[in-house]
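Sorry to interrupt, but I need a hand with the structure work. Could you add the entry underneath, on a fresh line?
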Amino acid sequence: MTNITAQQVSSLRARTGVGMLAVKKALEESGGDEEKAADILRKRGEAQAVKKADRDQKEGLVAIAIGSGKVAISHVSCETDFVARGEDFISAVQKFAEVALEGGEDSATKEAETVVPGLVNKLGENISLAGTKVVEGGTLGTYIHTNNKIAVIVELEGGDEEKARDVAMHAAAMAPEVISPEEVSEDAVTKEKEIWKEQLTKEGKPADIQEKIMMGKEKKFREESALIKQAFAKDPSMTVEKYLDGATVKQYVRVAV
């Protein structure tokens, strides 16, 4: 039997809006050939619309739904901003956020399997639910940019909703990769170190001096990537950590089109 990867299943699901088990079965029957699997699903009537794989979904919108003690974000992708600005698309994005808020992320995925094929047929573009995220508990703050292209949720331990909202607004503008410097991936640091080392070698810096300079560069790189160490957007004289005044960031979600 052909070994079907999760990536193959995800790709075909995005194109057809069909459930995971049906997609996997079609891929197995087709020997892993995505186009043949799409045809199998169409012939069975399971895929009402099959999107073309060579058309990128570079546009889209995000939405936020707020409940009692929890918040959900949805992100839906499409091909053009024209479609993203349409009422049908806007309503669907908001609906997915509300479904995720009510029933969880899996519920939004199931809703998309029903709704997306109809949107594809009506709007004539590749459309897919790029993702949803639900954050629950703590002190929650949200921010969504006026163009509905960037949305942020921040969960604090301590603090108040105003601080959480301010930090969410900061994160929307400054796009931190992680919450704290320690969370920056070693792979990212290693990649930067290779660049710094090459630059310092070209500058003729001795090896022992290079090490000291690179330590400083790594510290700066980690802090610039970390939410709590960034200069606070509303008052650059202090860091986000200082602004929080003892409150801590437990969770941070940023979604951008």
